[in-house]
């Protein structure tokens, strides 16, 4: 028979299963945290830990970028499959954030570079702080250059790599020589007053300095020497001021040695000091042309065209722009065109000397249209067009609408046949350059002096140059010549 339990054990409730020993271990480990929590909840606790301040919330751009970087990449395996959204928007936000950071850093560097520049200018004899600040505010490009060069010094110059950005910026400003170039108000006023006394109007000074800032770098002694260089050629104040305004670099850009060499080369054409002074006052751009690259090849080319030194002198005085033109692309094609229309090679030089502006005209907008007009409406035959241009190259400078066409219409109104007019122009090309208003009153007088004839067209044509032997030519040949001239004009 089973033994009975003691009376004290009758109300003892035993667990239905054996407890796990690991659970005791978990409860033991959980006690410190519960104690800490109770201490935080109990305000009367004597000792409690000091917690750090909460971290700032991350920006939306950083959260989007982090989410996009953690998102798994999935590829489309079949149509209709679901893919995660791309990170282009997140990447764009991250790029904008990085760009903003770089911009702020760059602005800080620019501000530092501007302060270093102000300090460098304050150490010189430039002026007051207000003037220096205003000057620095207008030197944004140079400030940017300071930032770039100072950053490059750390990489390219090991001896300066250990220095700070401010120190490297100061080194670059010193090496650039900027401080010595900046003028004070007194120095600028002295230069302006001197130029004004030499003929440069005060309201021109800004334009002149903006086109040639090198003028402000010259000392007063050097500036006076350059001014005397031109005034010794006979220039008065008006010519000198106009020359400087037309081409400011003529005074401050070239060195004195280069100016002397070009003047001596121009004198070899037989120019006197006065002629040279008038030439440079009219075309100061000549001083910018290279002797070796521009003048010597042109002189050699003109020499092969039988142009003498006196002829070159005339071309230089009449149209100095020729010595500024490119030989291969501008001058040579026009000479070749004159040869193609029938001007003899030995007469080309005479054409250029007689009418130098022909080399400055546009070949396709001026020269060719005039030649085509003479061949068609002018009645000049193909065989005679070269002779016409050689005898009177000034025709190439006449306006078709306001001169040549008016003259042709007037002579045709007198009853002169088309082919007869072409023959008259071939014998006397200057006929088309006559002023019609001056010629009109003389026609009746010439008719009265010559006497009456049977037909008016023949009578009028005999009164004009070249028409005495050709007025009675048959009209059929004139029509054939006109057709041939039109065909030749189409070929041109």
TrEMBL record:
SMART domains: Mterf. Residues 481-492 have a biased composition (Basic and acidic residues). Keywords: Transcription, Transcription regulation, Transcription termination, Transit peptide. InterPro entries: MTERF, MTERF_sf. One of its GO terms (molecular function) is nucleic acid binding. Residues 1-58, 471-492 are annotated as: Disordered. It holds the Pfam family mTERF. GO terms for biological process: DNA-templated transcription termination. Belongs to the mTERF family. PANTHER family: CGI-12 PROTEIN-RELATED, TRANSCRIPTION TERMINATION FACTOR MTERF2, CHLOROPLASTIC. This is Uncharacterized protein.
């Amino acid at each position: 028979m089973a033994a009975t339990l003691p009376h004290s054990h009758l109300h003892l409730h035993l667990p239905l299963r054996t407890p796990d020993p690991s659970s005791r271990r978990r409860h033991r480990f959980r006690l410190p945290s519960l104690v800490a929590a109770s201490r935080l909840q109990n305000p009367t606790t004597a000792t409690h830990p000091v917690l750090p301040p909460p971290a700032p919330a991350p920006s939306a751009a950083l959260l989007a970028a982090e989410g996009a970087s953690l998102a798994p990449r999935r590829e489309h395996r079949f149509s209709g499959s679901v893919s995660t959204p791309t990170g282009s928007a997140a990447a764009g936000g991250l790029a904008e954030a990085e760009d903003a950071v770089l911009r702020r850093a760059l602005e800080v560097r620019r501000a530092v570079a501007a302060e270093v520049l102000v300090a460098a200018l304050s150490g010189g004899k430039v002026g007051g702080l207000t003037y220096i600040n205003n000057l620095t505010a207008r030197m944004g490009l140079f400030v940017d250059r300071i930032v770039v060069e100072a950053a490059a010094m750390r990489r390219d110059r090991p001896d300066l790599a250990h220095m700070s950005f401010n120190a490297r910026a100061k080194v670059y400003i010193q090496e650039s020589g900027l401080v010595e170039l900046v003028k004070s108000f007194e120095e600028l006023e002295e230069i302006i007053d001197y130029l004004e006394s030499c003929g440069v109007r005060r309201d021109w000074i800004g334009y002149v300095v903006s086109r040639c800032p090198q003028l402000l770098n010259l000392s007063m002694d050097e500036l006076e020497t350059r001014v005397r260089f031109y005034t010794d050629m006979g220039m008065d104040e008006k010519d000198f001021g106009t020359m400087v305004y037309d081409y400011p670099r003529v005074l401050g850009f070239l060195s004195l040695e280069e100016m002397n060499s070009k003047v001596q080369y121009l004198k070899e054409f037989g120019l006197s000091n006065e002629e040279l002074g008038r030439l440079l006052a009219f075309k100061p751009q000549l001083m910018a042309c290279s002797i070796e690259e521009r003048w010597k090849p042109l002189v050699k080319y003109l020499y092969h065209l039988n142009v003498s030194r006196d002829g070159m002198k005339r071309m230089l005085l009449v149209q100095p722009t020729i010595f500024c033109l490119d030989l291969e692309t501008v001058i040579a094609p026009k000479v070749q065109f004159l040869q193609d229309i029938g001007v003899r090679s030995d007469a080309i030089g005479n054409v250029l000397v007689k009418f130098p502006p022909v080399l400055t005209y546009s070949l396709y907008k001026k020269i060719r249209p005039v030649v085509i007009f003479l061949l068609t409406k002018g009645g000049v035959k193909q065989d005679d067009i070269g002779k016409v241009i050689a005898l009177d190259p000034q025709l190439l400078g006449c306006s078709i609408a306001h001169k040549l066409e008016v003259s042709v219409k007037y002579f045709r109104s007198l009853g002169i046949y088309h082919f007869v007019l072409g023959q008259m122009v071939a014998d006397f090309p200057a006929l088309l350059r006559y002023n019609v208003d001056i010629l009109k009153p003389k026609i009746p007088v010439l008719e009265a002096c010559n006497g009456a004839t049977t037909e008016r067209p023949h009578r009028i044509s005999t009164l004009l140059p070249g028409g005495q032997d050709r007025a009675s030519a048959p009209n059929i040949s004139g029509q054939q010549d006109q057709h041939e001239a039109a065909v030749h004009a189409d070929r041109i």
